[in-house]
Amino acid sequence: MKFLVVDDSSTMRRIVSNALRDLGYTDIVDAADGVEGLAQLEAARPDFLVTDWNMPNKNGLELTQAVRSHPEFSELPILMITTRGMKEDVVAAMQARVNNYVVKPFTAQVLGEKIDAILKTA
Amino acid sequence: MPTASNPAPILDRLVELRTVFEAGQRAVSFAEELSSLILDVLPLLSEIDGSLRESAGQMPEATLQIQSVTEATEVATTEILDLVDAVRARLSPPAPPDGPPGAADRLRSLLRDRLDDAALLADAEALLDEADADEAARAEAEAARLDAARRDLDRILVSLQVQDITAQQLASVNHLIESVRYRLNKLVRWVSAEGGVAPDDDGPPVDAGTFDADARYVRPDSLQADVDRAAAEALASGDGASAAAGPTSQDDIDALFGA
């Protein structure tokens, strides 16, 4: 299963990728913002998208909306990882149709649980 | 019409004139006070103008310093991540032995072939079994020690997420400084404008930025339960009805959010 990790922080891209490898997912590509993420979506054709919210150019919500309106990737599993933990943020993310939501700082265990939950319902 | 026998209209006019004169005197006095005040305030305005210019001028430097702090922490975090990766690679569990039998097994086989004394053979095999058990216990203890070290490294990886969180907090401070600078510059132009009319050119307003001003570092996963609850409530209330084609039963919610 190929993962696309989109985050403007190189630290977070690396931490998320490390956690995914620990969970057994070794096929990982990444991007530094929403625009680059969309380009990688077309180029790498991932099976799963993990995205940050606050990013330049195109934020995680806008990226999610773009993916959901893409004819080929509208059902792509999307996990949002963000510092935003307010209820209205969660509701906004769900309305944009992310499949699940993880708040930073997170552990690899929670990341694994959320990915499993998404894949179980996919 | 005033007449010699009726001077009242003249007197009325005189009273009106006196009132106007008194009002004029008050106006002149007010104008004098206002003029004096303006004379006092002008140097003050000039000083304010200078202070505003100085403050506004120092802000870009402050912004750059904060930006350099963010970059420095990112570089340092990357170096720590490199080290963590290197240590994790060294802590990988050793591959199971794949090759000829170990020394103990070879010795066991040799004794069975060459030793005719059954009692001695039994004692030797018992000793070898004991040595095997000791070795297995040592290997288990070593594996547990490596596991503990790996868990510590995992905790370091979680802690390093603080870099992203503080970067957002610093970006928020920078945004605040830039907003204040924009308003100060506007004020400077207004204070120093000819005839009190500020030019229209305020420059581009400060960009909204891409940070979470409320980002905070808390115990890992401590906010996750609140977020899961908020998501479940939103689904139940229909706020997030468009999410994932709308699973609305509790089972679906639990399944979707891994409750």
TrEMBL record, chain A:
Originating organism: Rubrivirga litoralis
PROSITE patterns xref list: RESPONSE_REGULATORY
Protein name: Response regulator
Domain (Response regulatory): residue spans on this chain: 2-119
Modified residues (4-aspartylphosphate): 52
Pfam family, one: Response_reg
Highest rank taxon of the organism: Bacteria
Keywords tagged on the record: Phosphoprotein
UniProtKB/TrEMBL annotation, chain B:
Composition bias, Low complexity: 236-246
Domain of life: Bacteria
Residues covered by region (Disordered): 236-259
Keywords assigned: Coiled coil
Annotated coiled-coil segments of the chain: 124-156
Cross-referenced SUPFAM superfamilies: Chemotaxis phosphatase CheZ
Protein name: Chemotaxis protein CheZ
Organism: Rubrivirga litoralis
Classification of source organism: Bacteria, Pseudomonadati, Rhodothermota, Rhodothermia, Rhodothermales
